[in-house]
Amino acid sequence: MYKSQFISAGRESHNVEYHVDVAITGGGLAGVCAALSAARNGLKVCLIQDRPVLGGNASSEVRLWSLGATSHMGNNNRYSREGGIIDEIMLENLYRNPEGNTLILDTVLLEKVTVEENITLLLNTAVYDVDKVDDETISSVTAYCSQNSTQYVVKADYFCDGSGDGVVAFMAGAPFRIGAEAHDEFSEKMAPAQEESELLGHSIYFYSKDVGQPTKFIPPSFASIDKMTLDRVKRIKPSDIGPRLWWLEFGGNLDTIYQSEDIKFELWKVVYGVWDYIKNSGKFEGVENLTLEWVGTIPGKRESRRFEGETMLIQQDLVEQRSHDDAISYGGWAIDHHPGDGVYSDRPPCQQYHTKGVYTIPLRSFVPQKMENLFVLGRLISASHIAFGSTRVMCTCAHGGQAIGRAIALCKENNIGIRELFERDNINALQQSLLIDGHFIPSLKISPAHNKLAGSRITASSTLLLSSLPASDIWKRLNFSGAQMLPLCANTEYRFTTKVRAAKATVLTMQLRTSDRLANYTPNVIIHEQQFTLTEGIQALEFSCPVSLPEDQYAFICFIQNADVEVMQSDKRVSGVMSIFNGENKAVSNTGFQGVEGDIGIDEFEFWIPERRPAGHNFAMDIEPALNCYRPQNTVNGITRPYLAPNAWVAQWNASEATLHFKLPEAQLLNQLILHFDTDFDHALESSLMGHHENTMPFCIADYRILDGNNNEVACRQSNYQSVNKIVFDTPFKTDTLIFVFKQKTEHVPISIFEIIAQ
User: Fold this and answer.
1) How many Cα neighbours within 13 Å face the side chain of 70?
2) What was the pLDDT predicted at 2?
3) Which helix (H) or strand (E) covers residue 318, if one does?
4) Is 265 among the domain residues?
5) pLDDT at 570
6) Residue 67: other Cβ atoms inside 10 A
7) Best exposed site among 134, 381, 420, 519 by fewest CB in 10 Å?
8) Which Pfam families does this one have (predicted)?
């Protein structure tokens, strides 16, 4: 029997000390991606999370869907889903969890972290103290886990703060801001005339379910919607659950850090009051069998501290899509602000203004001023309150997290300080290593110096010459305008032939459009227009474009709205080609056109957006001259997704097997191969609630073999569903020939691949 006597001096907590390369505070998606990135690059990592699960606002504790630049596929940011580690996580979640159960996402994140031998994970552990060597250098953080009564001291060379409120950066003394900057500071036209303290608030969600028999609800005494404005009361729907209730928000006019518990309790009042209203007001039908299945126990917090970095993103960086030499990430969510009073406000629940395309985020925004070994992640990065409205969303935060994990590894490898990363050679090395791993950065490409296949002679068993999108018995009514997005060549006149079906005699207008910025997908420039007088029935139209484009670029063959006309579609899908529509997506404040009142520094333009599969078929058409855009040489052009062009090699339609043959100028010693597949970077992979039609992307090659010049198999993969496959050889080998044999199981989608890298 164990016994302990009274100790008059008291006892100390159990103490554990860790010595690691990098200590990361915060286990949201940004912290998780930073930890995985650093660990996979050889660093010892301690990931400290104050909650019982990973994922932050995406976890089962909050249950918000994860999004970034794709924005529910409701903006003009085509092929903009974040790549790299967050893409790996989202595709894994899709494969296991297409229905969007956040409990499954919890396991995906936990597995990703715990299989990494270099990561020590501390859950339910809150950092409460910071020690420093000097004014600008942190030596350790101290944290406590209430579940095992253990105090942890984590000593590290580098520290990352992804805690949301910036607990480490705050205690370390890093400069920060809370609230909105005045217009005059950065000349942001959306900014208020004077500084303001109003922030975005917190939200709590609930889930309900039908139990098959009547249930009653007796509300707690604190439940109340008495203070809710009529606008918010009118939004209550029994069918809405989870993140569709994002507007159940409050607290932006309180202290979102120190009053967070008060905000949470106020939201509990509202949530239980809303459920009481649904069940007991008598204003809703079909709610008798509904029960309240789950209510969030912690709020999803949107905004608190932002730390001043070596540069600060502002509204103009986003709207003008300004370039940054030290770009390591990108964003594309709308500039999205909410009234601080939330459910008690008469103002609309949110105000979203989109940009015409994505923008880049510089490394300097992750480096706080006056600190020598600290990075900030996620919603802590250096951005004005206006810019923060876009940078704050989870997949954008996660994408930046991977970049910082790799940045720290580069510092360790080369024994350099954080700010030495800003030097051209070092930032280039960081960018290249990220690109190789599938971490897309707009306007950058992988250098041929990093790919031993770059100088190869490449031949393919077949290559698709896109002379047509073959017709199927599928018709699309033009209740709103639609367009076929195609990669066209400069100095070429095209002719497109398509079939339409008119309900009566009418006139159809077709247009060739481009974007006013080469890398954007906002079709706001009309190059050519032609009108067709239609008779009732099916007829072929020949749309000839006598105007040639000055540069290779994506263009849009537009069918202008006419509800009396249907256009024939194709059941064939192919990498880098898609249909879009001038439609609405109210989930992201898209009503087909972004109108702007007054001069607030925001563009007006139309939204042309895709339809989710199984809809979203291409428009059937013959194309003359044919588009020779799927050459084998694309596999070494350094770009791993559609950007300015498809950037893919594609085999002929219906080829169930196809090969690529690389003949190197001379034999090379190969340590690893990295293959980049098409997982439809246009498709938003919301992690919860939405549900998805597929659990793998139809363009992605599942099965392949790799042979050397003697037809010896050097690698084989089956059932792949990830964008990036890295094959590391236990024993490097020398060869001057590689043969890739790909198989496709998805009907109506040809074999395709973006990039193959040998190192």
Assistant:
1) 24
2) 80
3) helix 315-319
4) yes
5) 98
6) 27
7) 134
8) FAD_oxidored (PF12831)
Whether 507 and 403 share a structural domain: no
Residues in contact with 656: Cβ distance below 8 Å, sequence separation at least 6, in sequence order: 743, 744, 745
Long-range contacts for 318-324 (Cβ within 8 Å, ≥24 apart)?
A: 318/355, 318/359, 318/387, 318/390, 319/355, 319/601, 319/602, 319/603, 321/355, 321/356, 321/357, 321/358, 321/359, 321/360, 321/517, 321/520, 322/359, 322/360, 323/360, 323/443, 324/360, 324/361, 324/362, 324/364
Report the C-alpha gap between 604 and 588 in whole angstroms. Answer: 16
Structure tokens at 373: 């070994």
Angle, helices 29-40 vs 102-114, to 10°: value is: 30
| Domain total of the chain | 4
557-605 confidence digits (pLDDT tens): 999 999 999 999 999 999 999 999 998 998 898 999 999 999 999 999 9
Q: Which residues does the chain have with pLDDT short of 50? A: none
Residue 271 is given by DSSP the state H
Burial class for 614, CB neighbours closer than 10 Å (0-12, 13-18, 19+):
exposed
- Measured in degrees and rounded to the nearest 5, phi and psi for residue 39 equal -65, -40
Cβ atoms within 10 Å, residue 42? 11
Structural domain of 401:
14-177+306-444
| Predicted model pTM | 0.96
Domain boundary among 410, 444, 478: 444
Sole residue written with tokens 């998780």: 32
CB atoms within 10 A of CB 414: 13
- Residue 162: give its domain's CATH number: 3.50.50.60
- 537-545 and 494-502: which strand pairing? antiparallel
541 and 675 fall within a common domain: no
Could you identify the residue written with the tokens 């579609």? 569
Say which DSSP state 65 is in.
P
Residue 6: the pLDDT is 87
DSSP 686: -
Q: Is the residue at 2 inside a domain?
A: no
